[in-house]
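Z., the sequence and structure:
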Amino acid sequence: FKYHHTEELEEYLRGVHAAYPSLTHLHSIGRSVEGRDLWVLVLGRFPTHHKIGIPEFKYVANMHGDETVGREILLHLIDFLVTSYGRDPVITRLLNNTRIHIMPTMNPDGFEATKVPDCYYTRGRYNRNGQDLNRNFPDAFENNSANIQPETRAVMDWIKNETFVLSANLHGGALVASYTFDNGNPVTGSLKGYSRSPDDDVFIHLAKTYSSNHASMYKGTGCDNRQTFPEGITNGYSWYQLEGGMQDYNYVWGQCFEITLELSCCKYPPEDQLGKFWRDNKVALIEYIKQVHLGVKGQVTDKNGNPIPNAIVEAKGRPHICPYRTNEQGEYFLLLLPGTYVLNATVPGFKSMLKTVEIADNTGNFSALKQDFSFPEVSDQIRSRVASCPKIPLYQELTRASAAVKPTVHILVLVTIMLVIFK
C-alpha cells in the first residue's frame, strides 16, 4: 500500500496486462495537458471489444489531482479482480458477464503537481491549465463557458465510443455517495432545494448500495459535526450546486448512470492509511458493479433480424431529456428497480411498440431482464438518422417552454370567463 506516481502506475498496469492478457486490455484514451497518458484497464471475458448483451461499467478516479484515495484503491480492485477470477465463483461470474473499465487517474498532471500532500486543498486539484475538470463538461442547465480541456474531451469521446450503463467517479474530502443532478432549475425541483432526475429512485438505490456496503459511510456522520448525510447519501444539488459536472453529463448525454463517491475526509492521507481505505471500500466497490445488471436490456431489430441503431427505448413515465437510443448493434440498457413497467420502443417514422415487463432483482444472476423488439414493417434499407443530442442547456430550454405555455393558459381561462359572462 503506497502511492504510485506516473511511471509506477504505468508499470503496474502493464504488469497486470502481461500477467493476464486474456482477461485484460490496456489502452490510453488520450493525453493530459502535459502529455501523460490517460490509462484505462478493461477487465472481462471479452476485454478488447463490446459483446452484445454484456453491459459496460466504469470507475474513474483522481479527477481532482489532490484527491488520491480512489487512485490507489482502484489499483487494489484490479489486483483483487484478476487474482480472484477462476477461484471465486462470484467474481468469475461478474467478469464473465460484465466489461469493467478502470481509469485510476483522470488528472495525472494534478497528482504530480501536488508536492506537499494536504488533507484539505492544494493547487493539484486542477489540471495543468488551472481548470477544475469536474466543472468542465457541457451542462444541461446553463451555458458552461469553460474551455473544454484535453482530459475532459478524452472522457467525452470515451463515453461516446462505448455503451456505458453504470459508472462512479471517486473523490475525496468528504464521506458520502452523491447522485444526480448536481445542477438544477425549477423544472427539476431546485426551488425546493433538490434537483430530481426522472430516475431518482434508481439513483437513491445506487447511492445506498455503495454507502450500505461501506465500512462506515452508511452511518452518515460525515467528516465533522456540522455536516451529516442520512444513510450516507445526498442529492448533489442539495449538498451544493455545481455547473459542468461529470455525473450529470454521463446521465444526460452518455445514457450512463453515474454517482460521485467521496471516500475520505482527508483528500491526500498518509500512505499508512491506504490499507484501511481499501478494506473499508472493497465490498462496496464490488456490490456497486453488480448494479449494472439492474433492470432490462435487449435489441431492436427489423423484419430480417438486423439491428436498428438510434431507435428510442424508454420506460413510460420517465422520459430522458435526451431520449435514450440504441447503439450500433441495436442494443438498449435501462436501469430500473424491480416492478412493472411499460417499455416504449420507437423507430422514427414508424408506429411505436409498447411492451409491459415485470422486472425482478437480477443483479445476483448477473443479467438484466431481456426484452427484444422486432419491427416487422422496417426493412434493412431503412435506417433512422444518426441522432445526436445538442450540447446546449436542455433544461433551460424546457423551463422557457413551460414558462411560455403559462400565459396561453391564462388567456384561455380569461376567454372562457368572458364567453360565460356574455352568454
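The chain has a mean pLDDT of 92. Residues 394-422 form the longest helix (29 residues).

Let me know what you think.
H.
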